[in-house]
Amino acid sequence: MRTFHAPDGTELAFHVRGQGEPLVVLPGGPMRASAYLGNLGGLDAHRQLILLDLRGTGRSAMPADPETYRCDRLVADVEALRRHLGLERMDVLAHSAGGSLAMRHAARHPDRLSRLALITTTPWALGLPANAEDRLVAARRRASEPWFADAFPAFEAWLSGTGDFDPVFVPFFYGRWDDTARAHADREEAETNDEAAEGYGADGAYDPDVTRAGLARVTAPVLVLAGERDGGPSPALARRTADAFRAAEFAVQPDAGHYPWIDDPEWFVRRVTAFLSGR
Questions:
Q1: Tens-place pLDDT, residues 89-140
Q2: So what's the pLDDT on residue 279?
Q3: How many structural domains are present in the chain?
Q4: Of 91, 140, 258, 265, which sees the most CB atoms within 10 A?
Q5: From its phi and psi, is residue 107 left (phi > 0), alpha (psi between -120 and 50) or beta?
Q6: What is the pLDDT of residue 278?
Q7: Rounded to two decimals, what is the model's pTM?
């Protein structure tokens, strides 16, 4: 673990895995410690992963002002990390909610980006949240799986607002529900700062018009990767993220859910490495 200081003095931590050219990695959750990313399915064999613990998560300190958990406020932390690393321009990979942070950073600092990979990113920053119907359509495709009968009613109730989040439907977030997926899912509660998660998307966090205008100036190569079995974002919604850039590659990982490096690490690493190396 290494540390640096944000502009407001908050001490932030990042973790370094692997060797090679640095790849700054922004976690999702929102506000889940970067530990859940692991080595991204073995991506650390090809790049040096710089895994940021966002403020108030993992080994990073709690900020004095909880309003700084807001997504747009976190852009300054990402930029401070770039300067700390001594990078004129940086490659960035962002997962899920972290993609909105990456887009807000790219829109504000397009000249500091060399490549951007957005992995199963729900484009809140573009004013495009995932919707319940997309999630239910994706969920219904899992009807043949043994856990479906117990999971679907609770999932439907949660999406309709008549039920609470229930761990019974967590399998819908994974492309395959096996021991590896179970172990990964079991850590989520302990790794997430719930207060920070509530603040991440607070009023003012997103400004879609400003973000779209900024992203139109991004000339760096962009990859938008969706999971075929993911409902949030669905591949169709992820495609709309790609459309926000001048020219972005769009890929759908077969049989993958929201955590594609868990579902098929070899496919994931091969596709992301090809993008990062310009192949």
A1: 999 999 999 999 999 999 999 999 999 999 999 999 999 999 999 999 999 9
A2: 66
A3: 1
A4: 258
A5: alpha
A6: 85
A7: 0.97
What per-residue confidence (pLDDT) applies to 108? Answer: 98
* Tens-place pLDDT, residues 44-61: 999 999 999 999 999 999
Flag residues of the chain having pLDDT under 50.
Answer: none
- Contact of 41 with 208, CB cutoff 8 Å: no
**C-beta of residue 38 within 8 angstroms of C-beta of residue 44:** no
**Do 107 and 211 contact (CB within 8 A), yes or no?**
yes
CA atoms within 13 A on the CB side of 245: 25
Q: How many CB atoms lie within 10 A of CB 144?
A: 6
- Long-range contacts, stretch 108-111, CB < 8 angstroms, 24+ apart: 108/75, 108/214, 109/75, 109/79, 110/214, 110/215, 110/217, 110/218, 110/219, 110/220
Q: Tell me which residue range forms the domain holding 226.
A: 2-133+193-276
DSSP H or E run through 222: strand 222-227
Distance of CA 15 to the CA centre of its chain: 17
Q: Count H helices, E strands: the chain?
A: 11, 8
CATH number at residue 251: 3.40.50.1820
- Asked if residue 72 is part of any domain, the answer here is yes
